[in-house]
Amino acid sequence: MNKPLIKSFYSILIIQCILISLSIGQNRKERIVLDFLDARFSGDAKMVKSLSSRDFIYFNTPYVGLGITTEWKQDSLIIKDISEESPAFNQLHQKDLILEINHALVSRHNSRTENPFKGPIGKSIQLAVQSSDSSNFTEYQGTLALIQEKQDLGQFLDDIQSFASLWEMSELQNVFYFSKRNNIVISYNWIGNKEGESVQYTFSTIEIYEINPINKTVKSIQSQWSEKQLIDQIKGAP
Questions:
Q1: Last residue of some domain: 147, 167, 190?
Q2: Has residue 228 got a pLDDT over 90?
C-alpha cells in the first residue's frame, strides 16, 4: 500500500475514532442526568451525591419579589424567613411583625395583604415593621427585585429526601432533552400520589444541567422561568 493511501486510511480511522468518542461522551452525559433525575425523585441521596460535584449548586427558579416569606399568627403577619438574596436582608429579620404595607394597615381580612409582594421588577414597596426582640418600629423602603435562591449540595440532599418522603408513588413523563458542550437542557412532567389518596399532583419544569467535563459529575442545575411567574408580576402591577 503506497504512502498516500496509508495516510488517507489513518486519517479516516482517526476521524471515526473521534466521532465514536464524541458520541460515547454525549451519551454518557445524558445518562448521568437521567440517572441523577431518577435518584433525585426517589430520594436516593447517596446516589445523587455520587453523581454530583463537591461544589454543586442548585439555582432555584428565579422570581420577582422581596425575598421574604410570611405567615399569619392570629391576626399578625410575621416574617417567617428571608432570603440572603433579598435586597432587605440586612434590614428585615425573622419573626419581625409587619404592621403596614404601602401605608395600609395589615389585616388578615384585607385581601390586599394576602399576597402583597407580587409585581414587576422595580415596583415600590413600603413596610412598617416592629422588631421581634423589642418594641422598636422601623420603616423599610425598597423595590421588588429578581431573586434566585441557591442551595449547596447538603441543602439540596436534605430537600430531595424530604420531598420524596411525601409521596407513595411518583414518575417522570414527557422527558425531552438536548445537549451542547457541557450543558444539557431537559424538560419533564412530574406526577405523584400521596398514600391513601386517589388524586394526582403534578408540575412541569425546564432545567439546565452543567456537567463537569473532567470527572463527569453534575456541577450545577439552573431551574428556569414558568408562565405563572409572569402572570404573578402582571397581577401585582400598580
A1: 147
A2: no
Do 103 and 207 belong to one domain? no
Alpha carbon distance 106, 99 (integer Å)? 6
User: CA 148, CA 94: separation in Å to the nearest integer?
Assistant: 19
Which residues form the domain of 132? 63-147
DSSP state of 175: E
Please state whether beta strands 201-211 and 218-223 pair in parallel, antiparallel, or not at all (unpaired). antiparallel
The residue with greater pLDDT, 72 or 231, is 72
Helix (H, G, I), strand (E, B) or coil at 51: coil
**The domain spanning residue 53 has which CATH number?**
3.10.450.50
Cβ proximity of 53 and 219 under 8 Å? yes
CA–CA dist 5, 52 (Å, integer): 47
Q: Where are the alpha helices (DSSP H) in the chain?
A: 3-42, 45-50, 153-164, 227-235
Q: Which residue has the cell 504512502?
A: 3
pTM score: 0.75
Q: How far apart are CA 5 and CA 7, in angstroms?
A: 5
User: Cell 419581625 maps to which residue?
Assistant: 96
Helices (H) and strands (E) in the chain, counts: 4, 14
